[in-house]
Amino acid sequence: MWEWFLAFAFHPVALLAVGGGAGANARYWLGAMVRTLHGPTAFPWATFAINVSGSVVLGLVAALFANYPDASRKNWSLLLGTGFCGGFTTFSTFSLETLELMREGRTWTAVVYVFGSVAAGLLGVWLALKIGAK
Description:
Blueprint: H1 2-9, H2 12-38, H3 45-66, H4 71-88, H5 91-103, H6 107-132
């Protein structure tokens, strides 16, 4: 009985589901709290706070769990990094990947990645709004 339960609990799908659900809830509640504290403003403080805090959390997860061979650390990385941070904000992954490119000395690739991602994201939203409005 316990072997089945442990196999289920530590299966990547379960880790991603639990982490992603927790991250999505954390995003909602942090955003609600920031909007309550700041009220209506011209700057999207809630999203800003979510993106920055998610980047900090993912940086800590990467430092503590990502590059270690043992399975328990990989499980924590999957639960907290991919799951929680993925549900909380994908901006954190974008930030970590950009920093890794810069650390590897691939500065121009990082620059293209940043500007290309923002430009393509804006274009994608604009096109979707145009298509959806028809």
